Each structure stands twice: as structure tokens, then as C-alpha cells.
Amino acid sequence: MSMGVNRGAAGSPQGGATAPPLVETCYGKLAGSYEAGIECYRGIPFAAPPLGERRFCAPEPPEPWTGARDAIRYGMSCPQSARRLQILPTGAQNPLSEDCLTLNVWTPAADHGKRPVIVYIHGGAFRRGEGSSPLYAGTRLVPRGDLVLVTLNYRLGALGFMDLSSVGGASRGASANPGLLDQIAALEWVRDNIAAFGGDPANVTLCGESAGGMCIGSLMAMPRARGLFRRAILQSGAAHNYLTPDQAARVTSQLLEGLGVPGGSSDQDALDRLFGASPDELLAAQAHVDQRLMDALGTIWFQPVIDPATLPRAPLEAIQDGSARGVSLLIGTNLEEWNFFCLLDPTVQNLTEAGLLERVRDRVAEALGPALSPNLLYARAARIVEVYTKARSGASPAQLFSAIETDRVFRVPAIRLAEAQRAHAERVYKYLFTYRSPALDGRLGSCHALDLPFVFGHTQMEPLAGLIGAGAHVERLSEQMMDAWIRFAHDTDPGHPGLPEWRQYTPEERQTMLLGPDCEPASDPGREEREVWQSLL
Predict the structure, then answer these.
(1) To the nearest whole number, what is the mean pLDDT of the chain?
(2) pLDDT digits over 145-200, tens only?
(3) Is residue 470 part of a domain?
(4) Residue of 122, 448, 458, 490 marked catalytic
């Protein structure tokens, strides 16, 4: 399926026009560029720069401008530390600045055409990433699907996901979840401006991967986000990621310690230090939090926090009660997500059976809290290991650990969200991405983030050749996935002639489309492993 538009080979419309495309927004005119036959507008401010006293605060509208604003370059990326491991190309070459609240638009034509709109939220563990990654460029997806694509930046790490209520942050205007509020501000910008770019503000699909998908899980629960999107596509993310206010207070306390604020200091002194620290100082303090809270809060310390004003309830609970009523859902995960994270932990390859049991016990304790006795925790962990060992005959402790974590962190939460939303949505669909990378002698497998080049159609991007391979099978899978995402954005059904029949997800059948070398539907894949988590997640 292709819904392409006829544009000139050099990127300008047929006829050889050289003038840049212009569009009028609520805040002023934008001068974009032509690329791959479509119009591109980059670095568009959707909020005022969150600098100075606006740090940690809810975003405010941007200032209008006069004349035609240059929109041919990406905006700056949010301050972030370097990735420890990178398997996919990113836009990390962009300068870093707190003045980062910009978005980018790709459209076949700014002609008031009422096309479906996909708004994409990048991943990166809530502390890295940018909407300018070449992976997310709309040059393949947009002309193929005759739709409008928006990518965006949002505040990351402490700047976007730290709650200052424990130190009286409200006295300085600080809000919980400013990163999520940035995303809502971008959606409000889309609502008010996307018609000028040829998009339909009443037909918005929110899409995100990893932390981006987890953000969508929170947005589905946030009252302020209601009505801003009609559909949601969550790739390797669900609605399980949040901190309680007590956990968020611990993060704030440790970050203050990393900034050199003595224990017992006044709230005013703490706030002065937080608002006055440089971005580099905040990043260094985040590293201090990493060291101090590794055992207590797992591996993600900056993430959405339960807050009466922004995120009043645990996201999954709110969604179960209908907070995202009417939002159709396409959700899925990769078969071997955790293989990627195992590369970050060299100790995994040396795991013994006893060491595996200890690690799983710790994960069970994290899920259930300290209420269970040590004997019961070990019994639960032993049962999990037993089920996965039986399902994967001959697997090593390292391979079993990767499979267990894949399901605990990604697959089972996705199933829970599909179950929760089914009663409140027109349609719910589920998939499992099964394509395996040939890199590192196959050790990556179908790892976290491997689906991204296929969804955006960038399988021929030069740095990816060794990661995803090449050939007709790669291009075919990319086309199948692009067309599924396109169809879902157009009419809420990801099925198309290039795939077998894709039925909705139901508790009875649990149909899941396997997206891999041979795309086919499966009924409740991994049933035994799913059931072992029934009382845990």
C-alpha cells in the first residue's frame, strides 16, 4: 500500500519551483524546505524557552514573531549525558541547551488537506534522545502514507521528570512532570496549527517507542491530555512506569546531595541551588543519583510521578477506569528486548543458576514490595525461572534472564495496557516484532529499538547495514510495518493486503501479529510465561 504524492526528484514541487515553502501559524510565518519531494519545517518553537525562573515549571506559549522565520534547521537538544552504548544513529550532534522546546513537521503539502497526523515521541529512558534523530525523519513514511508527521523535543532527566514538591517547589512555580507537560503543549500546538500544514487536528495518532511509549501511557491517564489525540501506537512501552511521591522525594534528596546541598538545608536554599545550577552540574548530580539509588529504584530514576495536579493516579489504574475512553490502541514489543541491555552489563554473561535466581528474586521484590517474606519471594522467583527454563530448553542463565526481563519490563505491561484499554476503545491491536539482527553473531537478536528503522522506512541508512542486514526481506518487512502504521493512522485498522488478517486483541484469543521474516498472526504467544506474571504485574 502506498499513498504517495507526485513531487519533483530534486525535492521541489513538479515544475522546478525554488522558493521555500511558506506556512502561516498562530505565532507567525515559517519558511521551510523541500526534501525527498515533501515539505519540511524544522526547529519550530511550541513553547517559550524554559530558562531561568521557568526551569522546572510548566511550559508557556512561545512569543509570536514577525516576518518569515527560518525553519530549515533542527532546534537544540535537551541537556543529556552521552549514551553508554548506541546501536542506532541519533541526532546527538545537535548542540545541547535548555532552550530545546521545538518540534518538526513533514508534510506532502501545506495545503489544508486534512491528512492524518502522527505525532512521534522519542525514547531514551526519560533522560536522552531528541526529535531530530535521522531515524525519525518523515522522508519515507510521509509520502508513502499521505500523512503529516510531527517529532518533538521535551525536557529530560531532572529537568523534565523531577518533582520538587518535597522542597516547596510550588513557591517558585515548579510543576511535577514538566516533560509530560511539554508533550501536552506540543499536542496543543498541533491542535491549533497543524491544519495549516495539511493535517487534520481531529485525526491525531500519538506514537512513541520505549520511554516515548511509556510517556504515552501516562498521557492516556492525564486529564489535561484528553481530546488531544484519537489513536495511540506504543512500541516497547506501556503504562507501568511511574514513581510515587515518596520515591520522587528520594530522587530529589539525592540530586540535592549531588549538588552539594547539605542535609537539613532550608527549602529556599535547596530551590536556589536547583534553579541556579548549570545544566552540566545537573547532569553530574544525576550521575550521583545513579550511584545512590541503583538498588532502591532499579535503573530509571527520572520518570513520571504521581501528582494531584498533573498525573493524579497510577496510569494503568486510571486507564482501566476509562481515562482514555475512545482512544484506539496499537501496542507491541520486540521478542528479545533485553538483549540490548545485557550488553550494558558484562556480568550477565557469567550468570550462574544461583545468580539468576537471586536477580529474579530482586525483580519480584521490586514488583511486590517488602511485604512478602523472603521464603515466598524465593518461591515466586523459582517458579518464574522454572517456567522460562521449560519454555526455552537449553537456554543459558544469561539467555533466561534476558527473556524474563523482556517480559517483565516490556511485554507483560503491554498486555496489561491492551487489556485495560479494550473496554474503552473502538479497537485494540497487538503485535510482536520478531526480526533478529545479524550483528554480533546474532547476540542482539530482536532487541530493543531494532524496530525503529523498519517503522520509519530507513532500512537503507548507511550506518544500519551491519545492524539490520540488507535485502528484499528487509525492505518487505519495512513496507509491511510502515503500511500497518499508516493504515492505523488513517482508519484505525493496521491490516492491509500485504499482511495476513489482523484481528483485534481480545482476552479470549489474544491475537498478536508476528512482524518478522514471515508475518503471521498468533494466538496468545508465550502463554505460559504470561501467566506466571499474572499476580505480579
Answers:
(1) 92
(2) 999 999 999 999 999 999 999 999 999 999 999 999 999 999 999 999 999 999 99
(3) yes
(4) 448
Examine the pLDDT at 2 and tell me if it is beyond 80. Answer: no
- Whether residue 2 is contained in a domain is answered as no
DSSP 174: B
The more confidently predicted of residues 343 and 98 is 98
Helices (H), 84-210: 141-145, 157-161, 178-193
Q: Identify whether residues 36 and 90 lie together within a single domain.
A: yes
362 and 313 fall within a common domain? no
Q: Which three cell numbers stand for residue 66?
A: 514577525
Residues 232 and 154 in one domain: yes
Is 171 assigned a catalytic role?
A: no
What is the average per-residue pLDDT within 218-247? 97
**Quick one: average pLDDT of 8-36?**
78
Adjacency order of strands within the sheet including 68-70: 22-25, 28-31, 68-70
Lay out the sheet containing 520-523: strands in order across.
33-35, 38-45, 102-107, 148-152, 115-121, 199-209, 231-235, 328-334, 428-433, 511-515, 520-523
Name which of 173, 29, 153 is nearest 102 in CA terms: 153
**Alpha-carbon gap, residue 1 to 5, rounded angstroms:** 13
Domain that holds residue 65: 22-244+305-320
Q: Is 210 a catalytic residue?
A: yes
pLDDT of residue 11: 42
User: Which DSSP state fits 268?
Assistant: H
Contact 421, 318 (CB under 8 A): no
Quick one: pLDDT band at residue 372, thresholds 50, 70, 90? confident
523 is known as an active-site residue: no
Cell of 251: 530522587
| Ramachandran angles phi, psi of 102, nearest 5° | -130, 160
Could you tell me the pTM of the whole model? Answer: 0.95
Q: Which one from 337, 419, 479, 529 is the annotated catalytic residue?
A: 337
Please, what's the b/e burial string for 350-361 (b: 16 or more CB within 10 A of its CB; e: otherwise)?
ebeeeebbebbb
Q: Considering 132, 175, 210, 328, which one is annotated as catalytic?
A: 210
